[in-house]
Every structure is written in structure tokens, then in C-alpha cells.
Amino acid sequence: MGVWQLLMVGGVMLLGLLGVIVPGVPGPWLVWAAVLWWALHVQTGLAWLLLVGATAVLLLDQVVVWLLPARRLRGVGITRRMGAYAGLGAVVGFFLVPVVGAVPGFIGGIYGTERIRLGGHGPAKAATRTVMRAAGTSVLVELMGCLLVVGAWAGAVVAGA
């Protein structure tokens, strides 16, 4: 697979990660489709193993999201800026402290946005807790599943599969 095709697959995965944060965009499906496209073109044992693993992780991810309480976005104060900062924090945290860094990065992005908006630690902490209860947990679970798949794909590409 050429460099341009790898960049295209990575771009679709990036759109999938952004799609997790934007309501109504099928982020996990975009990530899975990118892994499928890559595996069909590379056709190595590692590629097929990664496709099977990605399928399992994203299906389990969907089951967990389905079992969590429904998202209650109205009246909580979730803004696009908050979603952008939370998503950016999760991605940066995922790569700075591999895998587990996404959780504090996500929550830190929400807290930072609320701290700027509300001005103090106490109100920002309470607002962060409210946002995480309303929708943050399900978004975080979905984002973590997609980040795991993207990280595994990036590792496989670096390994030369």
C-alpha cells in the first residue's frame, strides 16, 4: 500500500474520531471501514488479525454504549467548543500516556472549558461532573474504542504490515 493510500486511510480514521464527538456522524463505522479497506489492500496475517480485533473492540464498544444511560444533551450546556477540547484532550492524552491518558485528557478538556466559562474551580468541577453524567461517559467509551483501533492500526503500519 502506498503512502497516499495510507494517508487516506488515516484521514478516514481521523474523520471517524471526529465523528464520535459530533452527534449524528457514525464515527466507529468510519474507523472500522478504514481498517477494512486497509486490510483488504495489505492482505497480511497481521492486517486480518487487526480487522478481527477492531471488529470485536468496536462491537463491544457499541454494546457498552447501549448499556449506558441514554444521552441527555439538552439543558446541560454542552457546546461544540467543549466537545472539541474534550476530544483533543483525549487524543493528546492517548498518545502522551498510552491508552489510559485518554480518560484524563477527555475530562480535562471538559474541565478546562468549564473553568474558562464559569471562572472558578468549584463551579467548573460541578459542571464537569454534570456533563460526564449526561453524555460524557458514553462519548468517552466510544472514543476510547476508536482510539484503541486507530492506535493498533498505527502500530501495525509502523511495524510494516
Automatic annotation (TrEMBL):
Matching InterPro entries: DUF456
Domain of life per record: Bacteria
Organism field: Streptomyces xantholiticus
Alphabetical keyword list: Membrane, Transmembrane, Transmembrane helix
Name of the protein in question: DUF456 domain-containing protein
Pfam family, one: DUF456
Transmembrane domains' residue ranges: 12-40, 46-70, 82-107, 139-159
Keyword NAD: no
Keyword Transmembrane: yes
